[in-house]
Task: structure prediction
Amino acid sequence: MRYLTFALGKGRLANKTLETFEKIGITCEEMKDKTSRKLIFVNEDLKLRFFLAKGPDVPTYVEYGAADIGIVGKDTILEENRKLFEVLDLGFGACKMCVCGPESAKKYLKSGQQIRVATKYPNIAKEYFFNQKHRTVEIIKLNGSIELAPIVGLSEVIVDIVETGSTLRENGLQVLEEICPLSARMVVNRVSMKMEDERIRKLIMDLKAVL
Ligand code: PRP
Result:
């Protein structure tokens, strides 16, 4: 039996994924050692391998078949737009992709005048404003703390993830438009889905039973 390789997005998502996998009898003791600098972890009995990667790199590993399966946020799947199968909504990590800004930015969205949109997700922002809203905006790519942009005058609005809404509230911003709901998803390499059909189907069924 060959190894099935999993790419997990680092951080909260990976912890929640491992918790969920434990419920269906998939464990990886090695991975629990937080002091370890190892990058790849193996469960010899089940012939499984796991590695942690930066979220946006997970779809890349899966598209190229370096990982058979990836667990990653829907935001990353939409932004990276890789060739892969999205097979399961894991439900956790639920949040929304939104257009946000100060109350005063509402008029810019209504009027259709040229605005600047700061975001970590330029492709999602383009798809939303260009293809769904049929309007031209200037997209400014940032790498984090996106809420700063309208406060310091870099942009009129932002496109970003809203989970509890506290970052917005504490910075005098609000949701102006909702783009789509997000959560953790399981993605599968297109060839692996055929070659390892039985093992992957069983994994999906077992996960569905505990979610
Ligand atoms: C995300 C997102 C928001 C925040 C939303 O940022 O970009 O800033 O979480 O969460 P809330 O609605 O519960 O306040 P993250 O913590 O991933 O860091 P980043 O700013 O570096 O993107």
Remarks:
- The pocket of PRP is lined by residues 120, 144-147, 160-167 (CB under 6 Å).
